[in-house]
Amino acid sequence: MDIFERIRQNPGPLGQFADYGEGYFVFPKLEGRIGPRMKFQGKEVIFWSANDYLGLCNHPEVIETDAKAAAEYGMFYPMGARAMSGETEYHQQLEKELAEFTGKEAAYLLNFGYQGMVSIIDALVSKNDVIVYDVDSHACIVDGVRLHMGKRFTYRHNDVESLEKNLQRAEKVAAETGGGILVITEGVFGMRGQQGKLKEIAALKDHYNFRLLVDDAHGFGTLGKTGAGAGEEQGVQDKIDVYFSTFAKSMAGFGAFVSGDKEIIRYLKYNMRSQIFAKSLTMPMVIGGLKRLELLRSRPEIKDKLWHNVRKLQNGLKERGFNLGDTNTCVTPVFIEGTPVEATLLAKDLRENYGVFTSVVVYPVIPKGMILLRLIPTASHGDAEIDETLAAFEAIYDKLKNGYYKEKEREMNLEFKPL
Ligand SMILES: Cc1ncc(COP(=O)(O)O)c(C=O)c1O
User: Fold this and answer.
1) Which member of 59, 102, 119, 124 has the lowest number of beta carbons within 10 Å of its beta carbon?
2) Residue 121 and residue 184 in contact, taking contact as beta carbons nearer than 8 Å
């Protein structure tokens, strides 16, 4: 079959929503500064879709630092890849501070989290090694594992018993190949909001020989006494062998880092292809990163405010009958029973009639058959925004239960039938 013909017939799991939802549910255009209130289609909405947990993206000191660095260095500096011509004192300083903050010997910056994680996995394992990873891992982990030439096993989502069974299988393979075992999980599963069971996973180290890689994109800055993430929260930061976080959440920026033992970070620095063969993180983000980290460390009241908001929003939604699954982090998923179209009609009602903007999340971002509205409380939301949002959810609750959105879907008589 002609490649283009096949593509025309099957636009892919997300592409199937293009005609129905582009510009509204997928690729929506928000206007104004990122914050608790933005504009959508000309109207103000309370905005719950930014992973700006600590509200740093509009912090005056952050804006000033970014702007100064951009004025001084431009957006291109440093040239090329770190290894060729892109090394600076500032990159090294940020790495030193990130290593200290995450309780590791060394850290290395990554130009983007996604590519960084792909290359961390690719560089860490040889074809004799075995990877054991959570079946619901973020796409960057899945894609990193795809590059692996050796054996891999998935374990059931956040299920330590299933992990143990797969470690036993992995041990058998490793005994034959002479390789080692790499376990990969997220510190926080960013859609459903559960913390990875790091403590239980780390305890398995007493019985099995493996290295643990944790993607803590949503834990960094939000969990743990100092904000060092899910490992700190669960008291097992030292059991994480390779720690990773993006800057695209609490750090309100872009780029990422990996931290761990000195020798391992040095090895990664010389072997991560997406870093060696791509441009280094640019100066405004590195100098701006130092400022963000300083705020994160020195202003604990920002994290306290975030958690005040998280509790108020999550308790309020639960009291109003909504199912938030088993989130134990800031990520606030509202599980919806029904079809994807019903969920989009509900989200549309929230946006148009109550001025509340949430994301609608479906497969392939979460497992097939699951639908959720995802709200991310941040430190910059205020009580007023939470109260208005809770009132809106209260108003739609009855409609949802009485089949109002189901009826609407029927009336629309859509030809489109999502997977
Ligand atoms: C769990 C997780 N890992 C990795 C990434 C990718 O990071 P980046 O946006 O820096 O590429 C994300 C999304 O930002 C994420 O949610």
Assistant:
1) 59
2) yes
Quote the ligand 1 centre to 390 CA distance (angstroms).
29
Q: Is 44 in contact with 270 (CB distance < 8 Å)?
A: no
Question: What is the residue with the minimal CA distance to atom 7 of ligand 1?
Answer: 113
Q: Residue 5 Cα, ligand 1 centroid: separation in angstroms? A: 32
Token digits for 269? 């620095």
- Domain assignments of the chain as residue spans, ordered by start: 3-53+300-412, 60-298
Ligand 1 close to Cβ of residue 246 (< 6 A): yes
Provide the pLDDT for residue 20. Answer: 82
Residue pLDDT, tens place only, 111-161: 999 999 999 999 999 999 999 999 999 999 999 999 999 999 999 999 999
Specify the amino acid at residue 7.
Answer: I
Nearest CA to 28 out of 324, 285, 352 is that of 352
60-298: which CATH architecture? 3-Layer(aba) Sandwich (3.40)
Cβ(248) to ligand 1 under 6 A? yes
**Of all atoms in ligand 1, which is nearest to the CA of residue 254?**
10
Ligand 1 center from residue 187 Cα (angstroms): 12
How many Å lie between the centroid of ligand 1 and the Cα of residue 214? 12
Taking the CA of residue 188 as reference, the ligand 1 atom at the shortest distance is 1
* Atom 15 in ligand 1: residue holding the nearest Cα: 217
Q: Which residues pair with 132 in a beta bridge?
A: 153, 183
Pairing of strands 30-31, 37-40: antiparallel
Strands (E), 13-71: 30-31, 37-40, 43-47
Closest listed residue to residue 275, CA positions, set 86, 142, 406, 414 = 86
What tokens were used for 113?
């989290």
